[in-house]
Every structure is written in structure tokens, then in C-alpha cells.
Amino acid sequence: MKILIIEDEKALRETLVSSLQKEQYVVEVADTILVAEEKIALYDYDCILLDIMLPDGSGLDLLEKLKQLGKSENVIIISAKNALDDKLKGLELGADDYLTKPFHIAELNARIKAVLRRKNLDGKNSIDIGNVVFDITERTLTVASQNIHLNRKEFDILNYFLLNKNRLITKTALAEYVWGDQVDQADNFDFIYYQIKNLRKKLQDAQADIAIESVYGVGYKLVAL
Predict the structure, then answer these.
(1) In the chain, at which end, N or C, are there fewer CB atoms within 10 A of the end residue's CB?
(2) Domain containing 77: what range?
């Protein structure tokens, strides 16, 4: 899962990054509206944490742009301002939730997981296809009731494929989703090939009712068998 934190307060931003990375999320940050707009134009995020008071403007203005792009439903507003008008305007603009500073990290984690369930899983915790049960919250994969061990990247890759079943996934899109900003440092995408190779073998050995197919020269596609 990929999260964007739009927050100009450095100490809080670093605390959020550290905490969310421990939850196995891919985390990217922006400290201004301009930087946030650049990232949102390039990447898709499962959840966006948005501060209202930013150095170059109001986060609500950015939220309005996100609504026009159809990307506001996965936004959680985080702000020191507890004014009812700001809350109502944020929710009217499509924000999923509103959290007032200071807040407990545990509460933020719970809000994020709720957003992800509503956005990707229609309120459920898992994706079920045939004999496959992929639990987002517990980060587990079972095939025919047998637990299949996945490393962190294998889990994130399979999660992305399951959310985009039967769609062509390019290597670039997959790399950006799973590795975030770090992918810019890569010379090639060989690391994706090896992760998918291992993931495929685990699915085949377990006789899963899903498979990852290669689309020559472009990327991959997950299909039900």
C-alpha cells in the first residue's frame, strides 16, 4: 500500500513516516502543495494524509483539485484546526476522514486501514478468488486454507495485482507502486523480475486459482484460473 503524507511540520512528518513504514506501507512525502501536485500527477496513492495549513496555500484548495481528478475519496485531513467549517468543507470536497492534531498514531493507523477497506475492498478485509484468500489487514495469503509465506515485496506486488485483476500492469507502474521514490535510483527492473519469479513459484506450488502472466515486452497481468 502506498501513502502520501502532505505535511510541512518536519518532526511530525518524520514521525509519521517512521510509524507507517513499520506498518509495511510505502511512504512518500511532500511539504508544500506544489510538491504534492507534482507527485499526485505522477503516481497513484492508496491513501493521502493532508494538512490544511501549508506554506504555499490551503490544503483544502488541493483537496478541491483532487476531487476534480476523482482522487479525493482516499484523503484523511490531519490538521491542528478543529473548526467545524473546515471539517465540513473537507468532507464536502470528498475527504474520507478528518483527524485533529495532536492524535495517537494508533488511531491514525486505524483510520488509514478503514479508508483502504472502503476504497479497495468494499469494506472487507480480504480479497477472495477461488481457493485464494488475501488478507490485507493481517498481511497473510492462504491457498486452500494453507498459509503461504510472502516477503514484504511479494505481498505488496500480489496486492497490487489483485487490486488490478485482469489489467495489464507495466513494469514501471509496478515498480513505482511497490518501491515508491526509491525506484528512481534503479538502473533497470531486474529486481521486479526476480520478485515475480519467486511469487509465481509459490502460487504454482500451492496450486492457487490465480496466476501471473507475462505480456511480452510490456509487463504482467494477474488472471483467475
Answers:
(1) C
(2) 2-121
Which helix (H) or strand (E) segment is 71 a member of?
Answer: none
Cα(197)–Cα(143) distance, rounded to whole angstroms? 18
Q: Structure pTM? A: 0.75
Q: CA–CA separation, 39 vs 168, rounded Å?
A: 22
Sign of CA dihedral 202, 208, 213, 219: negative
105 and 198 co-located in one domain: no
Q: How far, CA to CA in Å, does 17 sit from each of 46, 117, 145, 172? A: 15, 21, 34, 24
* Number of folded domains that form the chain: 2
Rounded to a whole number of angstroms, the CA Rg of the chain reads 18
